[in-house]
Design brief:
mainly alpha
């Protein structure tokens, strides 16, 4: 049987320099937008995981939401940067 060999995609080395810097900025913007959206929607500041008065469930849910949004932004930035530098 013949094996399917897939050639690895070559990525411009500058992507590994530029993308993390852009991803940091994008993550900061996403977090700020999420916090503003939470406040606009609920009328309260977003849960702060460092505040002992914040319920654990609220802190965990908000942390999961912001982490997921940051991960999506990072993937988008890395892919866009790789495509732009190609």
């Amino acid at each position: 049987m013949a094996q399917n060999s897939v050639e690895p995609t070559r990525v411009n080395p500058m992507v590994h320099v530029v993308a993390p810097l852009v991803a940091i900025g994008a993550t900061m913007i996403v977090r700020k937008m999420l916090n503003q959206g939470y406040k606009r929607t609920t009328g309260h500041a977003a849960p702060d995981s460092r505040d002992p008065n914040t319920r654990l469930a609220s802190a965990l849910i908000w942390t999961a939401v912001t982490a997921a949004a940051a991960a999506v932004a990072e993937v988008a930035v890395y892919r866009a940067t790789a495509r732009w530098m190609d």
